[in-house]
Every structure is written in C-alpha cells, then in structure tokens.
Amino acid sequence: MYQANGRKAEEFINHEEILETLAYGEKNKDNRTLVDEILAKARLRKGLSHREAMVLLDCTIPEKVQEIYQLAEQVKKDFYGNRIVMFAPLYLSNYCVNGCLYCPYHMSNKHIARKKLTQKDIRAEVTALQDMGHKRLAIEAGEDPVNNPIEYILESIQTIYNIKHKNGAIRRVNVNIAATTIENYKKLKDAGIGTYILFQETYHKESYEKLHPTGPKHDYAYHTEAMDRAMDAGIDDVGIGVLFGLEMYRYEFAGLLMHAEHLESVHGVGPHTISVPRVRKAEDINPEDFDNGIDDDTFAKIVACIRISVPYTGMIISTRESQACRERLLHLGVSQISGGSKTSVGGYAVPEASDENSSQFDVNDNRTLDEVVHWLIQQGYIPSFCTACYREGRTGDRFMSLCKSGQIQNCCHPNALMTLQEYLEDYASPATKEMGEALIAKEILKVPKEKVREIALKNIDLIKKGQRDFRF
C-alpha cells in the first residue's frame, strides 16, 4: 500500500502506485481541461503531485507543451533568479566492491586503472581547483570498506577544508558516497559537509537488483532508505537523482517525485537538489547496452516538469552533457552546473596519462571553468560561487523557507554578485572580467532592499581592494 510518509522503501516508492500513475498520465495526456487545471495549480508555485506531474510529462498538445516550458523557465527565475551555482567533482578513489553493470568502477572491470588519492594528492588536487576559482566541491568515492572506509572520507574532508592557497578556499564540501549507517551519517554531519548526495540509479526494484547483481549496493531497500537515515542523523540538505537510461523514463520520473514527496512528508523538507544524469560512455561501459535511453527533447521535458513540480529544489546538470544541451536546460530549470570537471581520480593537478584512464564517465563539455563562466555571463546568468547559506546555518527547512518566501533576492542575489567579483579579481581572464563587472553593475540594481544593496556595493568595492569572503 502506498504511503508517502511510510518509512519502508516499498511504501513510499510503491510499484503499484507508480503503475497506476503511468496509466493515469497516459489516459489524460490529451485532456485539455485537466492539463489546464494542473498548469493553473503549477502557477501558484506550490508544486505538483507525482500524478499531476505525469499528466504534464505525457501531454502531447503542442501549445500546452510550450506552456510547460515557459512556466518552468519562469518558476526557475522566481525561485533562483538568473544565478547558476558552480561546483566541481573531486574523485577520491575508484576502488569499489559492487558489481554495478552501468559503472566502470564495478569490481570485475580489470581494464580501468584503480587509484586512490593520498592526503598529499588531495592537497595538490584542491590547490589546483582553488587556482581555477572553485569554492564548492562534490567528493566522490567507490564503495570499498577496506580502501575507502568512512575514516578516509572524514580525513579527506578535513584536509580539503584546511587548504588555504592564495585567496582560494573550499567553503562547501558536498559528499556523494554509498548508502551507510546513521552513525556514519552523524560523523559526516559533524565533519561539516554541505549536501549528502546519493543517486537511486533506478527506482524499479526488479531492474535495480539486476543492475546491481553483487555487492552491498544490491540491497534495494537499504539504498532507497538512505536519505531517511541521513536526515535522521541531522543532515538536512540531501540530493537525490536517477540515472536516466537504465529503466523507462516515465517510471523513474514518478519514483523521483514520490521520493521528494516522501522526504517533505516525513522530514518537513524535500531534496535540496535533484540530479538528472544520463548513461554515458565509459571504460568497459557502452550506453547502447541499455535500451531505455532518452533523446534531448524528452530530457528537456523531464527537466521542465521536475522544475514546476518541485519548484524549490536545486537542479544539477554535470559535464556529462554537451554545451548545447546544458544551454537549453538552463532555461528550463537547471540551477547548478559543474565546470572544468575531471571525472578521473586525480587529473586536476597533473593531467592523467592516456593509458591510465580512471574516469567514471566521458565528459562532453570539456571547457575550462573560465570558459564556462564567460559563456554564462554572455547568456545573462550570474555564475555564483556562494556558500553563504550553508555557512550561516540556512540549511534544510531554513533554506527552503527563504527560497519559498521570495526573500532569496535579498540574500542569494547579492551573495552571488560578491562571490563573482572575487572570481573576477583572482582568476578570470581579462575578457571575462570585463564582461563580469558589467553584469555586476547591472544586476546589483535588482537587489530589492536599498540597505542590502548599499552594503553589497560597499563589499564589492572592498573585494576590489583585496578583502574577501563577505556574505549576507
């Protein structure tokens, strides 16, 4: 029986409920009256249920599909403005005991170069990332209790936070590691992590078990209930996602929204972020082996429907996607992207040799961080390196209340501009700096409160004179 507030995986990700949702969407995809009612509800910016969202995803009425896209872009602007948060992944280790069929880190892969960063290696990698201008990292590691125990992850987090190079500093470390215990989640909380991220990969239990034939990740319930354990341990910013291409996209879409509803129902706050990666080519992995791949148009519609269904969440697109695809999705709801990314273990400080491939997937957007920042500014977006909410304790329901109330323009907007000014002073190319300062001069006028605007202008001037790390 489906229970959004249930604590067991089969209750809040209920197979029968998903099948009924898929049938409901198919039945009503051309129901203009119902589609209009759902769109009217979506315009209230309060979100949609998974069934309502499925109707919009399945809708085939051309003018209504355009309304969905237009509304998604407006909802993104209403909640997040034109800010795009920047981050980079940092792969610590690709040792793994699981047998995931879609991931090159699977235990039986004898072709991939196995690597693990020492703390000295991490210092070199983080220094290189700081020299690029990054302030926010997402650390990644395979599941291996011998090579990658929780103690290694905790030591690595401490190392990252302690590195201060020139004007650089990593101010937020998000963590993407395997499902673990409440005790270990408490340790991660105490270590000062930002968001705990874990992709479900697929919500279809039978497919999940086939795709994870060996290793601890085979346990569907333990993996699916991980976010509950993390939030019970005090981590109130969590990020969910699926790997599109493993299972039918409509099933995954329904499961993803049901998971968000569950977290909101049980913990009072939904996912801080939702990621929507697609299966990509990697060492020993051919995307054509998975027959549920989605084209760019379907992908765009999924992103748009998630944005209007979960309006408060941050949406992440990585360098898995091409520049053209990322540009399209920025208009439809994406609010966080990576730049200058390496998906190998190491590679920021010293480029990886061609015969030592340790990448988790092939990167499709190979531009430098400065090129990505330049491109965003050209598009009228504010590349944001802000981590203020995390550092000021505005996480979980405190961040969500700020986001839902619309006050984000008096907080996140000036913070984004100040951190962009830091980037322009310390790392930008001359062309990027010129464009960026013109953008800041224009965007600072959009800060609603005069007092906040005055303080932000003063701080920006101080940043130009050498001071750093101002925040509201």
Annotate the secondary structure layout.
Blueprint: H1 9-12, H2 15-28, H3 32-42, H4 50-58, H5 62-80, E1 83-93, H6 119-132, E2 136-141, H7 150-162, E3 164-165, E4 168-169, E5 172-176, H8 182-190, E6 196-197, H9 205-211, H10 220-224, H11 226-232, E7 238-241, H12 249-267, E8 273-275, H13 296-309, E9 314-317, H14 323-330, E10 336-338, H15 369-378, E11 382-384, H16 388-391, H17 396-405, H18 412-426, H19 430-443, H20 450-464
Parallel strand pairs: 1-2, 1-10, 1-11, 2-5, 6-7, 7-8, 8-9, 9-10
Antiparallel strand pairs: 3-4
Radius of gyration: 21 Å
Strand tally is 11
Tell me the CATH superfamily of the largest domain.
Aldolase class I
CATH architecture heading of the largest domain: Alpha-Beta Barrel
CATH topology of the largest domain: TIM Barrel
Q: Which residue ranges are poorly predicted, with pLDDT under 50 across at least 5 consecutive positions? A: none
Tally of DSSP helical segments: 20
Write structural notes for this entry:
It is a single chain. The strands form 2 sheets. Strands 1, 2, 5, 6, 7, 8, 9, 10 and 11 form a 9-stranded parallel β-sheet that branches. Strands 3-4 form a two-stranded antiparallel sheet. The model has no long low-confidence stretch (mean pLDDT 95). With 472 residues, it is α/β, with parallel strands linked by helices. The chain folds into 3 domains: 9-76, no CATH class; 82-384, Aldolase class I (TIM Barrel), CATH 3.20.20.70; 396-464. It has helices spanning 9-12, 15-28, 32-42, 50-58, 62-80, 119-132, 150-162, 182-190, 205-211, 220-224, 226-232, 249-267, 296-309, 323-330, 369-378, 388-391, 396-405, 412-426, 430-443, 450-464; strands at residues 83-93, 136-141, 164-165, 168-169, 172-176, 196-197, 238-241, 273-275, 314-317, 336-338, 382-384. It is 47% helix and 10% strand.
